[in-house]
Batch of 4 targets.
Target 1
Amino acid sequence: MKDPLELFSNLLLVRTEQAMKNEYLKNLPYMLYADKDGQIYDHPYFRMAGFSGCYSVVLGEEDLMPMPEFSKLFFIPDCPPIGLDPSTGEFKTVSEIEVDGVVTKCFAVAAFIEPGLVRSHLPAVDYGPKSYILPMWAYTAVGFMDESYWTAAFRIEYNHKWDPRNYDDRELIPAIEKFQKEQHGGPLVDHLINCATKNHCFAAKNLFLKRWEAPLPVSQTCNAACLGCLSLQPDLSCEASHERISFTPSKEEIVALAVKHLDQAPEAIVSFGQGCEGEPLMEHSLIADSIREIRRKTNKGTINLNTNGSWPERMSAVAKSGLDSVRISLNSARPEFYKAYCRPKNYDLTDVAASISLSKEMGLYTMINYLVFPGITDQEDEIEALGDLIEKTGVNFVHLKNLDIDPQLYMQNMPAPKSKAIGMKQMVDILRQEFPDVELGYFNKPVRADT
Ligand code: SF4
């Protein structure tokens, strides 16, 4: 028979561990819920949980941070939140709550966090009742504790040039008026005034504020059909975030805007490939001709291209024209996950990898715009595939951008996982260890000194 003392001490150990676990659970932020009008409340009992993919998880201390003030809060109609019972450690769908004898239906709450932060967990939501597609935001787990909101995220980069506190629209309108007096207008300027004032695009605001990174959208078409495309959503049940540009700007207007910005703005960047257009490589000749003309007129600042990297030959032609840096977007380094999200036409991930490699070989500052999603990006197989891609291509910088998409839609379209998700923070730690020379961040940067 087993030694009773041993049995007792084991029991004591289990009890102590359970008590400590319960203590920890009790110290987690409270779950949030909203009523049908979107009024947000903290639940008096259940604690905040998170999703990795579509699985409920208990959040660790390292996963949580106070939610920065320029974050947004959303409620998710028809969908109850999933909370954590601090006494049992069980996850519970909380469909309703009774307060002072009044029963209220509960709807899940999510945050959209400030730029520069990587989301570690998705909101814990029962999407069962949902019959619509959520607009494209990077929904993030959020809770409430000690009079403040807490979110599941960690900072990957701080850059004052993208800090919402440095964008005051009271300065913008006079700046636009002054810009219009100084510069000949044109369809591209009008388009960018709409981007700056209606879509609140920071890059468009910078053009008129004459500083930092400014946009040069040129393409109406694309050779992919990303599930989360910001400028074109064929499925009418989900509105695109931006109106796609509806004309092709002239080389003259592109060059005039670019030269003025590169000559005048501090730490100037002009970027082809914006959220309000299709794929810029569809207009590679216009871009290459414009860059040659820009560089004939000024040697200042950085000329950047944000692209899906689908066309190595065209990438090479644009690089030869005088491009300084390139940022190539992908949601995954695994072909089946890439294909399921980007739905490419007549190209695949090998073409994208080839564009990354040749960009580096041709001396461009080469960046990957990695669209990250907890539960997919931190799968062991994905981390390995990304490691192979970084090793093979010699990329300089990896942007860790939270993917703006309806979490349920994304999970429904991604292949079934073959390996476990180890956590977004753990994924970043591995990248840092494996590739100490590769910069991890969130924002484009000038790569050419202001000469
Ligand atoms: S590559 Fe860009 S423009 Fe094309 S579908 Fe994807 S997000 Fe949209």
Note: The pocket of iron/sulfur cluster is lined by residues 222, 224-226, 229, 231-232, 278-279, 308 (CB under 6 Å).
Target 2
Amino acid sequence: MTNAVPPKVQTILITGATGAIGSALATTYAQNGIRLVLHGRRSETLAAVAERCRARGALVDTSGVELTDDTALAEWLTQISRQHLPDIAILNAGQNAHPVGAGYLEPEDDVTSLVDINLRVPIAMAQQLVPGMRARGSGQLVFISSLAGWHGLPGTPTYSATKAGIKAYGEALRGLLAPVGIGVSVIMPGYVTSPMCNAMPGPKPFEMPAHKAASLIQRGIAGNKARISFPFPLNFGTWWLAVLPAAIAQHLIRLLGFGRIERDTK
Ligand SMILES: NC(=O)c1ccc[n+]([C@@H]2O[C@H](COP(=O)([O-])OP(=O)(O)OC[C@H]3O[C@@H](n4cnc5c(N)ncnc54)[C@H](OP(=O)(O)O)[C@@H]3O)[C@@H](O)[C@H]2O)c1
């Protein structure tokens, strides 16, 4: 008789699991031996994603806790960390907003909620998750930036700022946490078909379906890549915006149509 050790169940936490990329990631990871902790605000959509993942063999827990409520967030993460400390935490929930017209800023409420969910919440989640991961000596944090994080775009000023911010934070944490066994990856997608992407004004070159983006992200996370940016042509083009002299970068942005604000209130 052998005393076979049951295979370890890997726990993966995904916020924004009701969205295009989050739900595609959940489905991509769902299989036997995987426990998914899925977060989303739209309960019916979340239940449907969870059912799809269970049908593929995954164990699934769901939550709709208010991520921007520091106390509720801390209680939730303390509870799940006690039960099943995540092996991978994909901090994917995010929003976008646009200026209402050329020369006008984004609505102030949108700015506040964007900074909250795109930047402050993933940092707060790292604060909560790192102590447990450090004590265990393993874990991986995944932050969702954007190719808009390479250079600010006139059509999405606050979004660009939050995505540049979370990119810098993830890059910094990678070096800080590697010595204690915690991996950190920053994801920089281009245009991925989703309600958020559909609502964006301007050109969307090399737009790709969410399931394709999810496969690229999963592969990159498995290799603990520091940066997972795609698609290649758009990544290469937008990377130049960050390294070229500012005047040339600004000129290119105008030339490529990323400076066009389509709805004008005047
Ligand atoms: N699609 C793109 O082209 C693209 C490109 C680069 C980066 N990204 C990034 O990828 C991530 C996922 O975006 P997506 O394209 O999948 O967009 P999406 O389909 O609109 O999904 C956004 C997700 O974020 C959640 N969310 C938004 N605000 C929230 C809040 N205040 N509290 C809790 N959850 C909140 C939504 O939850 P509910 O549905 O429950 O409201 C939804 O699950 C975002 O961080 C986005 O910035 C997307």
Note: The CA atoms of residues 107 and 164 lie 20 Å apart.
Target 3
Amino acid sequence: MPKTFYILSLGCPKNRVDAEMIWAAAARSGLISVDLAEEADVIIVNTCAFIQSAVEESIDTIVEMGRYKSAGSCSRLVVAGCLSPRYGRGLIEQLPEVDLFVGPAEVGQLGNWLAKEVPPEKFICQSGSSFLPQAATGRVNSLAPGSAYLKVAEGCSRSCSFCVIPRLRGPLQSRSLEDLVSEASNLIDLGVHEIVLVAQDLANWGKDLSVRPALHDLVEALACVKGLKWLRLMYLFPAAIPERLIELIASKKNVLAYLDLPFQHIDGEVLKRMRRGGDPQIIDALIDRLRRQIEDVVIRTSLMTGFPGESEDAFLRLVDFVERSRFERLGVFAFSPEPGSLAAKLAGQVPGQVALRRQEELLAIQQPIALDYHTRLIDKQLPVIVEGVNSEGKLFGRAWNQAPEIDGQTIIKGTAEIGQIITARVVDVGPYDLEVDINE
Ligand code: SF4
């Protein structure tokens, strides 16, 4: 009787693509996928270790899955993802219920160790490195029907002082343009209409390749792939947005006017201590350029509160930035002093409570701004990708200005085929969600 497997993936879309490849490798090795952990012989937890709260969630999940081993339903518990490279062999003792620890670099080999071969040892992890997928690697698409992530590179060669990712996943490794176009065509042949480009550092894609292509070369090539309706760009390092890319987004119908630009802060001193490059004037000028050059542009950003040295004045500059920039989409995170990061050792640490209060204050300022943006969409006809039926039996999806997993949803009145892109009139809004009616 072939064995069964269950995989649970935590963290970011880049990690999710790894889980999709592990899933495909497990199936190729003869394992059968099941939807419930209690039915699985092999359980794989694809962990995230970006910040402490993610580490805690990963460990809680492993312990929870470990209960199926003691209950006897699971014979093998495997830990993949960023926890292994972050904490090393010490995990073997801390989590004795785990049979195999691997890291992002071992994604390509893991399939062999799941069903057939006994892995050479319990902890196999080449820290500071990642497996770079190819179109031929094979993966399943775990996003809603019609959409898929395309991971264009792995790792990161920047050195933001609060971040440990380069240490976990290694320096930037870009996939070739030809390989990415080939995978995009495969995805479209499978019925995908929306491709979401992801990487730790999308803006730097190609910088490590011999011919040093730029991101806009890739965007231009993908925009020409027959059948691609929506191309979405996530995780663009703000200090690296070339004019050519802006022109492409403004001119190409299937390149969404949706830009995810994690500015993190606006105070010059704080940006310097974050090692993010850029300065307030450059950031303001970029936002101004985007709003002038790209019609109906949606700017998503992430901001961090409570970074070491963030004075009350620096925070008030951040408040002013949010009020005057009127971002369509905003995520705010309280600084987390990550052991091993430069920022954790910086002077001027801000008390956690203050960081959290500032986070809440910014989110409260943003809510009416988000609602105002949505209110101006009422009666407009919007393209919406249909994703499924929710627990109330309502059809739902995402409008073009809603990214998967991080933005709100759109409730759809009327009937439509799941996985298709429809156009419908906005009839009701909230600060994050929309409601559209196909029949109007
Ligand atoms: S760009 Fe900065 S925050 Fe993003 S992965 Fe690289 S080092 Fe980390």
Note: The CA atoms of residues 261 and 301 lie 5 Å apart.
Target 4
Amino acid sequence: MDGHGRRIGDLRVSVTDRCNFRCQYCMPADGLPWLDREEILRFEEIERVVRVFAAMGVADVRLTGGEPLVRRDFPRLLGMLATVPGVEDLSLTTNGYLLERDAEALVGAGLKRVNVSIDSLQRDRFFQLTRRDSLPQVLRGLEAIARFPQVRPIKVNAVALRGFTEEEALPFAEFARSTSFQVRFIEFMPLDADHAWSRDQVLSGEEIRAIVHAVHPLEEVPREPHSTARVYRFADGRGEIGFVNPVSEPFCGDCNRVRLTADGRLRTCLFSLGETDLREVLRSGASDAEVEQVIRDAVWRKELKHHVGEAGFQQPPRTMSAIGG
Ligand code: SF4
């Protein structure tokens, strides 16, 4: 539990800060100074932390990056975590570029759900934003994982940027209507490496919803507890579309999430300005009970909410690429 009476049930684990894409809203073209190998948690250390969290009732584990599939032998880690008692839901957030290569191994290891980040369905615009001409490969990855019915739901997450995503709204709506993939638009958040974020770059979920609704009428689906998305079904029954609006409609009230960075820092909020060094604790010979106590103390101080858009808001020094969403 945190100090606001919220029960933590969802752990996001960043397994690497490295990525094979260079998305404009995330990192510079030349990438960032990557963490050294010995700074990164080893598979056994990640497994130990997940085991301690699972013993405290944290049943949902999402693996993120950077780009998690660039971490060598990643499916082996997934398999280790799939056997941890108490882990009920094991999911992945990926840019999809290596998904075709790894789909079978991931499913064999126990993957249950996957979110694929795709910001445009138009090849040139995808290239423009990610600095990679990789849309066809990403779509092949999506098809590859979709062949496994045991991996559901499969979500496609698109970051919403003013002056870019307006043109993507209807193509993504068509995509959601003609496939089994759940499309979600995510408002641009101040976690970019350039610290260039400003409120006027945010295209709100409501604005995109209006663009889609004008062509394909939408009906709101009741919100699930802890859900980050406002979900709508198409009135004619052809699928769903969702909006994750952390800037215009924060959902911190029933937040049940905490994060572990690739270098073993516990972040109790996406926008935390402080972190707890679990790697130090793990490598100091501490017992599981001691690790648990460090986690409980940190989570008890979890932030009530973020302050994006408020006077005095401070962007965290750690960027999205080193947090993993
Ligand atoms: S901003 Fe922080 S408190 Fe709000 S939903 Fe995200 S992680 Fe939870």
Note: The chain has a mean pLDDT of 96.
